[in-house]
Amino acid sequence: MSIFSRHRLGRRQSEQLLDGARPASPAFDDLVGLLAAARGPHPADAELPGEQAALAAFRRAVPTAPAAGVAPAGPHLLEENSPVRTLALRRLLAVKVLAASVLTVGLGGVAMAATGMPLVPGGDHRSSTAAAHASPTGSPSDRPSTAPSGPGTRSGSPSATRTHSAGHRRTHEKQLVACWAYGAGRSKATPSPVKAGMPFADLARAAGGRDRVAAYCAALVAELCTKADAGHLPGCPKADPTRRASGWPSDRPTRSGTKPATRPAPSGSPTDRPTARPSRSAPGGSPTQHPSQTRTGH
Amino acid sequence: MREGRPLTPDQTRDALDEVLARARAGDEAAFVQLYRALHPRVLRYAASLVGADAEDVAAEAWLHVARDLPAFRGDGDGFRAWVTTITRNRALDHHRSRGRRPVVLDDVLAFTDRPSGDDTAADAVERLSTARAIALVATLPREQAEAVMLRAVVGLDVAAAAQVLGKQPGAVRVAAHRGLKRLAAELSRRAEPARRRATP
Asked: Which residues of chain B from 94 to 113 reach within 8 Å of chain A, CB to CB?
């Protein structure tokens, strides 16, 4: 006979168990143990898998480390016409210029992948040299270093890019699609993960590790989307100079299908919809920190 | 990078609020604290939904969270619910694209939720028991499994869990209660042969 027929689990005991408390009756010890096991140990204060990728995305999203005068403004940062917000946008643009050259360094990693050598985005000295020549205008078409570090380039000359790149470029375009499918930013043109064309593991392998996928994708986007003929590529912005430096489009995917958990959060969370209508229309304000949505051409 | 104090998920509301405010203002150490506090639990929740693909789903969710954090408005509790909701949505997207498969123990075992390189024997045992527990919860009807995971593992209260699931709080209470009753019955059923052997 089950002990639970003698000590029935009532609503009150249920709530206690779910809150992590131990009901008075020992009859529920097994259940207490099960839930404690599912909960696992307390989080360790050490780096967790995926942390670096998340942090990289965070760095792309926040304008810069808080300076006095900006930090306390916190919630007001995004209010329309707020001077603080204007300041934040200016900072973002300044950071963008800096990031453009950083990304250029990252492109070296893409080039190395194409040449079959170990890929460490940003770890290639030759492309660091190339980045030194990068024009810090933030305008994609003005960056001379993107051509030498293009796919398939071994010699670093633009002509080499043209002669050797077709196959590599196809691979990279495929990876780019996978980046959109799995990555932080998805544009409306983004295929759903089922059409990603490659498993996440393959993308991670190309990137040199799961933790490097974000950096790798950022480099890929910067590489491919800044080419003159980038218009046909999925997800690339159409010659939008105010696009964020990372190149991740800020649009949400638009999908059909069921909509779980679509009720707006009381906390005003802007983007918690699975089917992701454009967040501009979401209650609680849209993430207006993306300059591409708000202003053009400072 | 400056490391902050470890932030346990059960820490006071004020502490989470404070760390969240700093992260939203661009403090990387604060963001790391948020990640370390919440990631293991949302990862387990994701594992109950998609098994070994939980890591991919959680990684995707965190990229989303990181991107939209500056625009997030709400307190620490709201943030926990927000992160959970995004994780859930990514998991459901995953289901739609790959087709839903039952989560089995092997699936769950494959996900890693420990610091990289942290692989002692004791840790392996711990991971195994966590995986077993999650796999068992995942055998429940999904509504019940999710209610149990959100309440007991992610640590959401009824209102927050209801918000994440898009249900009434009462429905979440009922689902979680039924889930626990089923789990209790299953544990009891499994313990029965052992008890019989112990007392012939």
From this structure: 94, 96-98, 112-113
Please give the average per-residue pLDDT across B77-106, as a whole number.
Answer: 88
Tell me the per-residue pLDDT of A217-270, one tens digit each, with 9 for 90 and over: 777 766 666 665 666 666 655 443 333 333 333 333 333 333 333 333 334 444
Chain A residues in contact with B86 (beta carbon < 8 A): 271-272
Report DSSP state, residue A251: P
Domain ranges of chain B: 13-192
C-alpha A280/C-alpha A271 separation (Å) is: 10
Nearest to A216 by CA among B98, B42, B30, B63: B63
Q: Return d(Cα B137, Cα B180) in angstroms, integer.
A: 9
Question: What's the pLDDT score for residue A190?
Answer: 43
Task: Give backbone dihedrals phi and psi of B166, rounded to 5 degrees, phi first.
Answer: 70, 35
* Cα–Cα nearest to A179, from A191, A163, A165: A191
Secondary structure letter of residue A252 according to DSSP: P
Q: Hey, CA dihedral for A33, A37, A41, A42, is it positive or negative?
A: negative
Domain ranges of chain A: 3-39, 60-232
ipTM for the predicted complex comes to: 0.87
| B25/A183 touch (CB, cutoff 8 Å), yes or no | no
